[in-house]
Every structure is written in C-alpha cells, then in structure tokens.
Amino acid sequence: MPLAAGASGRIGCTYCQTLTGLVCASCKESPSLHGGLIPETPYCSDTCWENHRPRHENDCTKWKQRRCLFRAAQIVRDLFYHFAMHHFSTAISRVVPDGNELRIHEDPIAPESVFADFSANEFSNVEDLLTVLTYHQCTESLFHTTALVEALFFGITHSTKDIREVRHNVGTKYRSPMYVDQGPRPTLHDIWKITLKSDEVYVLDLAGAQFGNRDVVVPWQEYRSTRINGLEIERDLYAIRQEYTRGAIRDAEVDTEKEFRNVFIWHFTRTMDHTLKAWQESPGALKLHEIIALDNLTDYEAKRQGLFDQAINSVAAERKRLIKEKIIRLEDEATCLVLPRHSEVDGWIAEMKEETESLGQAGMGS
Ligand SMILES: [Zn+2]
Ligand SMILES: [Zn+2]
After folding, report:
1. Does one domain contain both 43 and 170?
2. How many domains would you assign to the chain?
3. Hey, is 73 helix, strand or coil?
4. pLDDT tens across 315-334, in order?
5. CA of 62 to the centre of ligand 1 (A)
C-alpha cells in the first residue's frame, strides 16, 4: 500500500490536484533537518502515486532513510539509557549543583566494585539527571550498542564501513559534572558517525548529555562545526569494542580481586547481543532494519516495544541468575552489587580473548 491517511485533512493531490486525505506512506512522518517533520506528499490514488513516482522517488527515499535513522537512534538511546540506569558504576549519594558545576558525591562506604542502580531520585530536573547518567559513559555507549547499531543500520547504509567511531575534543555547554574527589573531567568524546545510502551523514551522540547536548541525532556538518573542538580520529565500527574488551582483560589480569567490573559490563552487553541475534534469526520475525522501515506507525511502535522488552528482560534475567548463583553478591539493601572472582568469570575472560582476536578479522555479522 503506497498510500496512508494524512495528518493535515483534505489537500490537493500532488499529481492531479484532486482533493484527498491520503499521502505517500513511505515518507510520511519523516523528520526535517531543522526540527519538526517534512510536509506530507498527498496523492488521491495509487495511480497518481505511480505516475508521479519518477519525480518523487529521490526525495521519498532520502526522507524515508532519515525516518529510519531517527527511529534507530531512539531504540539505541533508550537501550543505552536503560543499561546505564541499571548497571551504574558509582554509588552516588548526593549531587549538588554549584554554579557551572554539578558536584557528584559518592557513597564513602559503598563497596569498591559496585553494579548499582542509578540514584535517579537525587535530581531535581531531567537535564541534571541525564548529564550525570551519561558522564564518563561515551565509550561505554558505543561499546554497548555496537552490534545493535550494525543490525539496525543494515538497510540504510551501504555496508558496515559507513558506520564509524569518531573520537574528538569537545566543549561544555551545560553544567559540568564532576566527582568531588577525582581529578579534572575528560574532554575526549566518542560518537557514531553514519553515512546513509542517500549520502546524508549523521552523528549518533548517545552520551552527549554530559556536555549539555541532549539531541542524539545531529547532521555531521553541523556537529563538526559546532561541537568538535580540535582532535578528531575516525575508526572502524568494531574498533571500540576491541579496545574496550582488551582494556577489560588487562584490568582483570592486573588485579584478581576487584578490577574486573568491565568484564561484567562486557558480559551483560554480550547477553543483550545474543538476544538481538536470536531475534534476527527467529524464522518469520522482522529483522531489526525491517522494523525501523515499517510504514505503519502502530505496527512500528508495537515491534519497537517488543524489541526493547526482550532486550532488557534478557539482561535482567541474567543479572538475577548471577545473583542467585552468587556470582554477583548483593550488599547494602540491594543497591550495591559486589563482584567476587568466580570460575564463570574466568570463562568469560577466555571468551573475551577469542572475541578480540576474531574482531581483528571481521565484524560480528547482523
Ligand atoms: Zn491524483
Ligand atoms: Zn514519499
């Protein structure tokens, strides 16, 4: 069905000017680069849609890819925020706004290796909350979402080579978050840079809220001229996953007691990846890139919610299993989790080593 009900009532058909309430379904509700939506393209009939296709097709395809991009970005952001909320690295006891700074106080008696829920009730507004939630999380935001991004963008990029990690210097627009007993805040920031088949280039900035940038999708040119402050390195899709995994292995080998929090983060990310892989491979189910391309908004919303639920439930179930089997130990009114060394963890480290080797040769596949 190339046509769907439009939002603006009866207007003239683009081809024959007959009044109609129908519009091109492929590009309906596509975002404009300057905020809001692209105006709908009305047609009175399938015939007029077909007759006008040669003139409309280029715009239509470009706008639809943009719609897919914004949907993919929403899914990636929501899953990353959820991840950050429930697998937070620091036990925050208080956050005190002080002029241009957000001073973050940690719980002095919390165990060193924590895997806590984010203390969302310490904040009086959502801006401060997102700033602290994403603070120091840009590398993680890419590491968590690598396989997800690859699968979602399969249909609107030519290949995985069109998804790049960009590391750059950044300036701060919002209140600068700072842990009170640590050194100066970092200035390096990691983002995804994505080139669509339509040649439009975008940034997916998942942890930009720490600098006051809460819009996740930004056109590359605009991002580059307004948010990149010097130094800029571009790398392959899986470079950051490899770097993170190598670092986590190194930390775990240096200290056998506590320095393997990142091994757990790797494990939870892999748990989510397995769920996504199972989704991609289940017979008859829509692939991730097909979900974001759905023209029917209701269908899309239902699939999106289903995907989100399945991803977070798999991680929650694994967390529960690890607690039950005492691989994670609960402490301090269930807000803090201690990560004792365990033989299962050693098994993960062995798998991490295999992964970093195989990533050298190829991607994870979608
Ligand atoms: Zn017509
Ligand atoms: Zn269209």
Report:
1. no
2. 2
3. helix
4. 989 988 988 888 877 765 54
5. 23
pLDDT at residue 246 in the model: 93
Reduced DSSP (H G I as helix, E B as strand, rest coil) percent helix, strand, coil of the chain, to 5: 45, 15, 35
Same domain, 204 and 98: yes
Q: Tell me whether residue 170 is in a domain.
A: yes
Looking at 11, 36, 61, which one is the last position of a domain?
61
Q: How far is the CA of 291 from the centre of ligand 2 (A)?
A: 18
Spell out a b/e string for 255-278, using b for 16 or more CB atoms within 10 Å of the CB, else e: eeeebbbbbbbbbbbbbbbebbbe
Q: List b or e across 189-205, with b for residues whose CB sees 16 or more CB atoms inside 10 angstroms.
A: bbbbbbbbebebbbbbb
Give residue 88's Cα distance to chain centre.
16
Q: What is the CA radius of gyration of the chain?
A: 23
> 193 CA distance to ligand 2 centroid (A)?
26
Please, where are the H alpha helices in 3-117? Answer: 46-86
Q: Quote the ligand 1 centre to 19 CA distance (angstroms).
A: 8
* Co-location of 212 and 275 in the same domain: yes
- For residue 86, what pLDDT band results from cuts at 50, 70 and 90? confident
For residue 39, give its domain range: 3-61
**CA–CA separation, 297 and 5 (whole Å):** 11
Q: Ligand 2: distance of its center to the CA of 49 in Å?
A: 9
Q: How remote is the C-alpha of 301 from its chain's centroid?
A: 17
- Among residues 61, 76, 93, the one where a domain terminates is 61
User: Do 195 and 295 have their domain in common?
Assistant: yes
Q: What is the pLDDT of residues 268-283, one digit of tens each?
A: 999 999 999 999 999 9
Tokens of residue 339, six digits: 């990560």
Q: How far is the CA of 34 from the centre of ligand 1 (A)?
A: 29
